[in-house]
Design brief:
Low-confidence stretches: none
CATH class of the largest domain: Alpha Beta
Number of strands: 6
Largest sheet: 6 strands, parallel
Radius of gyration: 18 Å
Order of helices and strands: EHEHEEHEHEHHHH
Shape: globular
Strand content: 5-15%
């Protein structure tokens, strides 16, 4: 079935009957470790979109010789890469000026995995770097996020596509199966996971504090509400 899940927790009724019609093409750069995760969100994203609008490439290193199509995409002036940082422009500002169909690259992995892929592949620093405004909290409540505004890959894609396509209903449609996934898991024993930021600020973090000074500093920044 499209969702590839057992019938008892099948998500197909929550997927759109027909793939969403979008002009933006997504390239999902997926860290190999994500393939083994049971509750990954990219398959749900792919099930919501036409195959030619959601292309998934798995790996850590991407060079021009092995990935000529990706290299061409990265050199295209209309291509965007969703990766927050000092060099990133808010996607809303870019979308206002964009009238032609675009290509967006999204890296799928933990924050450290995404950072490794971004900085060790020169191709990914060619497209215009964009980010989402931290205006919504993650609804992927069955996994722990670093901060309240960190989103899953599915959520990032849903928000980004709704902005690029200027259609808010796209976000609601793509998030529908995620809500169902979380509901099913909670019904079968999963617990709601608050972000690390929430746990630290409320004195609920029950794991040993890291000995690594860099990691400890990052946790101090989370507690003090300093943007990392």
């Amino acid at each position: 079935s499209p969702c590839s899940r057992p019938q008892k927790v099948c998500l197909c009724p929550f997927l759109p009957v027909h793939p969403l019609k979008v002009s933006t093409c997504l390239y999902i750069i997926q860290h190999p470790a994500e393939e083994s995760r049971v509750l990954r969100t990219v398959p749900l994203l792919a099930a919501c979109l036409p195959p030619d609008k959601c292309k998934i490439l798995v790996g850590r290193r991407f060079n021009e010789d092995r990935y000529p199509e990706l290299a061409t995409v990265c050199r295209n002036p209309s291509t965007l890469i969703l990766y927050p940082g000092a060099e990133a422009t808010n996607l809303e500002d870019v979308a206002v000026m964009s009238s032609s169909p675009s290509v967006m690259i999204i890296i799928d992995g933990t924050w450290s995995q995404a950072k490794d892929i971004f900085y060790k592949n020169s191709l990914f620093r060619l497209p215009k770097q964009v980010q989402l405004k931290p205006s919504i909290s993650s609804q992927y409540v069955i996994r722990t996020q670093p901060t309240n505004t960190c989103l899953s890959t599915l959520e990032c894609a849903a928000v980004a596509l709704s902005i690029m396509e200027k259609n808010k209903s796209i976000q609601e449609t793509i998030l529908h199966p995620l809500h169902a996934l979380c509901s099913f898991q909670l019904q079968h024993g999963a617990q709601i996971h608050h972000s690390k930021e929430h746990l630290l600020k409320n004195g609920l973090y029950d794991k040993p504090m890291p000995k690594n000074k860099r990691k400890l500093r990052r946790m101090e920044l989370l507690v003090n509400n300093v943007k990392i």
